[in-house]
Write a structure and sequence with these properties.
alpha/beta; binds shikimate-3-phosphate; single chain; globular; five-stranded parallel sheet; 189 residues; 9 helices
């Protein structure tokens, strides 16, 4: 029996990044996607916490957002050198054009999406410095609107996580990554 291409090749990509607003599921989906594809996993926020020896809210409070953003760009730069990895980024990573360019130069960027209400439910128990002002759902909507262009510019693919099981989201990502790869190969041929 002749095996189809998708069966002969184990996985569509060996490097992929996840981006999107806080609470869209980047870390959870990123981890599960890495298991599904047999790749390593890194989360840029966790790397920043390890190298700075600070939790992100403390880093924001002590040194401010711009120092955090510089750490973030440096971690993205280093993540480009890794092979066989799923890279989960922070919610604001792709707001810097240089970060978007770096990520997209290395491989596909999957932008996860969810509604402001879902995001509020997912983030309310965890400290997110940028959401601690005013009415949280309004603040989420405002920030999301302000960042919409950056997410669109960063996305090789956009996938909704609203009201879905993570396993279903992962399957959709894998399927669409095969399509992405086939399209990329056609352009190159
Ligand atoms: C941020 C998102 C957070 C973290 C920091 C800033 C943002 O990551 O990087 O609090 O600017 O949206 P998550 O998206 O993993 O929550």
């Amino acid at each position: 029996m002749k095996l189809g291409r998708r069966h002969r090749l184990e996985r569509p990509v060996t490097w992929v990044a996840l981006a999107g607003f806080m609470g869209t599921g980047k870390s959870r989906i990123g981890w599960e996607l890495s298991r599904r594809l047999g790749l390593n996993f890194i989360d840029t926020d966790r790397v920043i916490e390890r190298v700075s020896c600070l939790r992100i809210p403390d880093l924001f409070e002590l040194y401010g957002e711009s120092v955090f953003r510089d750490y973030e760009s440096e971690v993205v730069r280093r993540a480009l050198r890794l092979d066989d990895v799923v890279v989960s980024t922070g919610g604001g990573t792709v707001t810097r054009p240089e970060n978007r360019e770096m990520l997209l130069s290395r491989g596909p960027v999957i932008v996860l999406t969810a509604s402001p209400e879902t995001i509020y439910k997912r983030t309310r128990r965890h400290k997110r410095p940028l959401l601690e002002i005013g009415n949280p759902v309004e603040r989420i909507s405002e920030l999301m609107n302000a960042r919409r262009g950056a997410y669109t510019a960063a996305a090789s693919l956009q996938v909704s996580t609203d009201g879905r099981f993570s396993a279903d989201v992962v399957e959709e990502i894998v399927e669409r990554l095969w399509e992405w790869r086939e399209a990329a190969e056609k352009v190159r041929a």
